[in-house]
Amino acid sequence: MSDRDERGRLLPGHHSPGPGRPKREQEAALLSAISSAIPPAEVASALRTALDLAIELRSPRGIVSVLEFQAAYQLGKPIARVENIEGDPISETLEKLQQMYIARQQVGQAEQG
Predict the structure, then answer these.
(1) Where are the domains of the chain?
(2) Angle separating helix axes 60-74 and 40-56, nearest 10 degrees
């Protein structure tokens, strides 16, 4: 018997929690294993090699990929910036739609008359 309906939703009274976040000890062990498998000095060397190769091949996409990878770990993800737009975009859009509607009506009247 399934604990989900035909749309995949959980039925009342049923829940199936996920595995959740790994325990800190497990996370620390994984980080330690990764660090011992590829020491930070080798990662730095590989990044420098990848950047040099991308530059040598004149590959803007390769250069950006290496720089994005490095920035993601060194700086973190950038924050979302909110632009201050002059005017009211909703009113401007409604006005444009109204102009299109009027133009369509005028074309329809010209075709009929």
Answers:
(1) 24-79
(2) 150
Judge contact between 27 and 35, C-beta under 8 A.
no
Which residues make beta-bridge pairs with 10?
4
pTM of the model: 0.45
CB of 74 closer than 8 Å to CB of 86: no
Residues whose CB falls within 8 Å of the CB of residue 97, separated by 6 or more in sequence, listed in order:
none
In 3-state terms the chain splits into helix, strand, coil percentages (rounded to 5) of 60, 0, 35
Residue recorded with tokens 């009211």: 88
Residue 97 token pair: 């739609």
Give the integer Cα–Cα distance in Å for 60 and 63: 5
Please write the tens of the pLDDT for every residue from 8-51: 888 887 776 666 777 888 888 988 898 889 888 998 999 999 99
